[in-house]
Target: N-acetyltransferase
Amino acid sequence: MALKITTLAERPGLQEPMWRMPDTWPEFMLHDPIGWAFFSRIADELPQHVLVATDEAGDVVARSFSVPFRFDAEGRRELPATGWDQVLLWAFDDLRHGTAPDTVSAIDITVAAGRQGQGISGMMLDALRKNVRERGLSGLVAPVRPSRKHTESTGSIHEYAFRTRPDGLPHDPWLRVHVRAGGTVQSVAPASMTITGSLDQWRAWTGLPFDAQGPVEVPGALVPVHCEPERGYAVYVEPNVWVRHRVDR
Model:
């Protein structure tokens, strides 16, 4: 497959087509408050860390977002339990203060709806590794959202993250792509993203009644959503899996 993968800084005209690219994200995943505050800012303020792939017809078929941050700093140096949310906070705090980064975190690799299963995600991961290297940085980490964990949402993420096939590769397909690319599964980020909402919001996002106390299994969610009908809210705390890539300069 012939894809053209470049940074958004190199082809800024792709920003609008990139946002219009159809994807398969569940609606509730679009309502993490930290993601709401920072995700779109990556394209505007860090376009050199946004990759866009187009096919032979010029259509956008995939995107990749990442953020640079200073990992070797007081209060950091350990991959955070609050994963995706935390690296966004670190990255934009460093950007505001002019702190030189030493590491990049992947934030999103999304393949257009209808184009999955064609090896594009692996190509985007390879391009991300190359982009990190070209920026003069040697560290790449990723709070990975395992692609099949939603099919067993009541199971332990700690067991799932380290489950392997007989050939030693991860059981999960997306984790497997990372390991094949040279990544190492490091740890679980049990509270990587937290999404709260009223019961009416959750009903609108999912089409489910949200009228019973306790866990609610939601399509696309990696763990159940906790529902509190008497208090009028529900909370989803998503776990991710930290993968570390070594990127030789």
